[in-house]
Input
Amino acid sequence: MSQKKRILSGMRPTGPLHLGNLLGALANWVNMQDEYECFFFIADWHALTSDYDNIDPIKDYKREIMIDWLSAGLTPDKSTLFVQSLVKEHAELFLILSMITPVPWLERNPTYKEQIGQLSNKDLSTFGFLGYPVLQASDIIMYKPYGVPVGVDQAPHVEITREIARRFNHFFGNVFPEPEVILTETPRILGTDRRKMSKSYDNAIFLSDSPETIRSKVASMITDPQRARRADPGNPDVCKVFDFHKLYTGADTVAEIDQQCRTAGIGCVECKQKMAQNLIQALEPIREKRAYYEARPELVEEIMVEGSNTARQTAQKTMEEVRQAIKI
Output
């Protein structure tokens, strides 16, 4: 039997996970568990790059993210689930890679420029924020994965990792394979206000939301802005609620709602109620598993520690090769 190819990816613990995280990454990870040898990590050091002045929530967020992962279907039986800061080798490799990474590579990083603009309320003029792609590269190449599953907008992150690995190999010998970009299909998930779903915009539906909270958030969703009255025909093509119907409602019902909306056969309130109920039903298995793990915090902690110990065994082997290559 052929050996599975290894993949690796991670998430920053900056808040509870929402539908955008589920459909944009987590659901793909769950499906990949049977095809690949999977390493998934909580990038808590990365959370410090932008939230260094508000560290108190990070510990709770780490636990909440792990619960979300387990509730969505990731399992330590199939994947290595670990915490970045519990594998100290990441910091050592970051230091070594930072010695060879040209500053212009970091300054041209599109995400760096984008985040500087979006987070203008924070002082991001730190070495850690500028150099986070180097830490990200160490996170990835430490495990010598075949590839990194990302959406198309995140592909440049993997490309700079490939460049850093290539530069290390040029100076010190072929230690690191260059990871491939594994592009994953990610539905375009907007928040309740039609902006990108984000906790910072207060427009997200979280995996941990109760049915009552989901109904309330769906009720506030923006529909067709041109439909002023119940009797007016609507345009589902511009309606965020209809976008969610396409994800969580059966195809026959979606077609029916499309026709009814265009002929004013259904009002926005009723349409929202139908979608909210379907969304609640779709998330019910996740809520049930979440309740199980929330009642067992010791088990969640054990999974994080054991997964980190497993990851560290691989990291230690890699760092032995690195130290031999740089002769230190």
